[in-house]
Specification:
about 260 residues; alpha/beta; Rossmann fold; six-stranded parallel β-sheet; three-stranded antiparallel β-sheet; 9 helices; about 35% helix; hydrolase activity; AB_hydrolase_1; Alpha/beta-hydrolase; AB_hydrolase_fold
């Protein structure tokens, strides 16, 4: 097995894989293999499904596993629902917590989550939020897209320099609403955070997912039996952009912890 796991990055709603570029550059300098994923639901296609997003994450994971590499899945915001569901069946069975020396197949060994939640199996993203989207989002029934109601600069990037914040506002894509709400998603949603250890980066000045809500969700996950280690960063909803050094160090430390459990 490779000494360092491959890291698969899953962005949030309306965001491209480009949001991970700063962090990836730092981690690649530490000799991590990094694979950013583009979610189909962010590509201006209102017909994209939750399963489409899951498969986009599973494909690179399975490819890496088949080459004998363990994988850490890094998720942000809505990407947490996708990434956690994508690890179903791809983790090491709990009764086999250590890998035999002769094993050549890799596994997902952990999830590094930031500014995200812990959805239960069998529920859509909206189900897990009480049947509706967060207050900052709404569904345009005519177009099939989820629309950001709150000012995105203040909601996602308030701690970035003005020019950089506006750049990222301009990069927000049309997000299909179907993966959030369509009942078909219940068939594929999965609490993968129950199957592997999770490191969670709480964003303490987050205006999209308030810090207190994050702490509440972490406690609920722990109460349900999840193995969750929490770190904090003074960041908006987008720590990979505003605090890339701290975010990369968080991921590096999480990966080392996960490897230590199976090595």
């Amino acid at each position: 097995m490779s000494a360092k796991p491959t890291i698969v990055f899953v962005p949030g709603a309306g965001h491209t894989a480009e949001v991970w570029n700063k962090v990836i550059a730092l981690l690649e300098a530490q000799h991590f293999k990094c694979i950013p994923v583009t979610l189909p639901s962010t590509l201006s296609n209102p017909s994209a499904t939750f399963f489409d997003d899951i498969k986009a994450v599973q494909d690179p994971i399975i490819s890496e596993m088949s080459q004998g590499r363990d994988v850490v899945v890094v998720v942000h915001s809505y990407g947490g629902a996708v990434g956690c569901s994508a690890v179903k069946g791809l983790t090491r069975p709990k009764q086999d917590s250590t890998s035999p020396a002769t094993e050549t197949k890799g596994h997902v060994i952990g999830i590094a989550s930031m500014a995200s939640g812990f959805g239960p199996s069998g529920m859509t993203f909206a189900d897990a939020l009480g049947g509706k989207l967060p207050p900052s989002w709404n569904v345009d029934e005519e177009t099939g897209f989820a629309v950001i109601l709150a000012p995105p600069r203040e909601t996602f990037y308030h701690d970035l320099p003005v020019e950089e914040g506006e750049y990222w506002v301009g990069k927000i894509t049309k997000q299909a609403a179907r993966p959030f709400m369509h009942p078909e998603g219940r068939e594929y949603s999965y609490a993968g955070w129950m199957d592997v250890p999770v490191w969670y980066l709480a964003t303490t000045v987050d205006q999209a997912l308030p810090y207190e809500a994050q702490k509440h969700m972490v406690q609920m996950a722990r109460d349900a039996g999840g193995d969750v280690t929490v770190r904090e960063v003074e960041s908006s909803h987008s720590p990979m952009l505003s605090k890339p050094l701290e975010t990369a160090k968080f991921i590096e430390d999480a990966a080392a912890s996960f490897v230590g459990r199976v090595g």
